[in-house]
């Protein structure tokens, strides 16, 4: 029997070159502190999800914008080296590519300072939407809302499953994007803000009441919660010694998308994704800590 073909993901989002420092504590300013460890990684919400999808056994391509500068060229080359398809990146003439500094403390909490060039062309007109049908799943995020919106609309027209990373966003962004997604997968803070609720269960019910697809929330150490047949379902996250939570949510999204694309039931897909994200939290370096599929399975995913 021939092996099943790998599932394919298209991810639409913003790219950033991130320097990560590991410290014992993050002091109040003014302060100066020596880092115990450091690394640089090309990331972004959808980008890290795509890398996780690929590392866990799928194939992924990314549609994104970069400045036509040395940093942008380096970011594209680094992502290409992971095996994801970056052939459709748009290099914007005169634009500056994004970069960020992240400080992670001993508890895994972090301080994030990003810079995104506000003049970088946000138009999605160049996106090759006619090729969406070559994918099994679409993943988008809120940092490039214009690209996310047209990609979600195109996916809906052809019946392609489409996951939105519902992170906290500027007013109006989630209101535009959530109705277009077949899978609205929020962070806990994202769904609380969107639903104007004080607890995740109430927020899930409010969103699901007006949404015709999957509605869920990734809740960190509390695992994943979603609505199924009118009831709130939950999968717990494994208890781990947290080192770095950077990109854990993105790894969760990539893992969940892969399992759903492979036809796993929601509960099994969520369990796999929770284990993958938990393992990542035990490793320093953002998305670089994403485990392999074999590691997730061995840990009960």
Question: How would you describe this protein?
Answer:
This protein is α/β, with parallel strands linked by helices and 301 residues long. It has one domain: UDP-N-acetylmuramoyl-L-alanine:D-glutamate ligase. The chain is built from 9 helices and 14 strands. It has helices at 45-55, 70-82, 145-158, 173-177, 188-195, 200-208, 248-261, 266-281, 293-298, and strands at 8-12, 16-22, 37-43, 59-63, 65-67, 90-92, 98-104, 110-115, 137-141, 162-166, 183-187, 214-218, 224-228, 231-235. Helix 7 runs antiparallel to helix 8 (266-281). The radius of gyration is 18 Å and the shape is globular.
Offer a concise description of the structure.
The chain has helices at residues 45-55, 70-82, 145-158, 173-177, 188-195, 200-208, 248-261, 266-281, 293-298, and strands spanning 8-12, 16-22, 37-43, 59-63, 65-67, 90-92, 98-104, 110-115, 137-141, 162-166, 183-187, 214-218, 224-228, 231-235.
Instruction: Determine the CATH superfamily.
Output: Ribokinase
In which range does the helix fraction lie?
25-40%
Q: Mean pLDDT, rounded to whole units?
A: 95
| Spatial strand sequence of the major β-sheet | 4-1-9-10-11-12-13-14
CATH fold-type name: UDP-N-acetylmuramoyl-L-alanine:D-glutamate ligase
Strand content: 15-25%
Shape summary: globular
Q: How many H/I helices?
A: 9
């Amino acid at each position: 029997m021939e092996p099943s073909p790998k599932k394919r993901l298209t991810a639409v989002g913003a790219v950033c070159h991130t320097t990560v420092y590991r410290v014992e504590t993050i002091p109040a300013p003014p302060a100066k502190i020596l880092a115990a460890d450091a690394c640089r990684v090309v990331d972004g919400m959808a980008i890290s999800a795509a890398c996780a999808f690929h590392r866990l056994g799928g194939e992924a391509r990314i549609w994104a914008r970069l400045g036509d500068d040395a940093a942008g060229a380096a970011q594209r080359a680094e992502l290409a080296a992971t095996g994801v398809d970056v052939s459709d990146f748009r290099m914007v003439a005169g634009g500056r590519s994004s970069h960020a500094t992240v400080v992670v403390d001993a508890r895994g909490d972090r301080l994030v300072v990003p810079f995104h060039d506000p003049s970088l062309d946000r138009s999605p007109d160049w996106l090759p939407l006619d090729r969406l049908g070559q994918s099994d799943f679409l993943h988008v995020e809120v940092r490039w809302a214009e690209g996310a919106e047209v990609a979600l609309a195109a996916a809906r027209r052809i019946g392609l499953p489409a996951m939105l990373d519902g992170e906290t966003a500027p007013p109006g962004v989630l209101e535009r994007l959530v109705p277009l997604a077949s899978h609205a997968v929020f962070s806990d803070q994202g769904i609380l803000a969107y639903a104007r609720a004080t607890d995740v269960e109430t927020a899930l019910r409010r969103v699901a009441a007006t949404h015709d697809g999957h509605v869920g929330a990734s809740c960190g150490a509390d695992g994943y919660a979603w609505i199924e047949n009118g009831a709130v379902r939950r999968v717990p996250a494994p208890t781990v010694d947290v080192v770095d939570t950077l990109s854990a949510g993105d790894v969760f999204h990539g893992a969940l998308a892969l399992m759903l694309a492979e036809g796993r039931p929601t509960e099994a897909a969520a369990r796999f994704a929770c284990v993958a994200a938990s393992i990542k939290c035990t490793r320093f370096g953002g998305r670089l800590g994403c485990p392999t599929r074999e590691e997730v399975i061995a840990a009960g995913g």
